[in-house]
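#structure-requests
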Amino acid sequence: MSIGEPHAHIPQWEEIWTKLAPDNSFLMLGSEVREMPVNTAFLAPPNGKTVHSVVNLTKDKMMAWLFIGRFTSKLPDFGRDPLVSGKPLE
């Protein structure tokens, strides 16, 4: 049995969690615990307040989810230059 720690994210970060086969599971979203059948998904709102987690209540099985996360607003341009300059191998 395992559970990811229920947590919220910084504002403007959203996540989508999709339950993969073969077993159903549960999710926590805000103060609610809900069933999460295979091939269903939930969106963790990008409001910086809503806690969420996925839950594996089995004692002997691994579960799988597909996770997609992104910022909902444009981020500053931090540049593409490397932090350390390269040098040739000898």
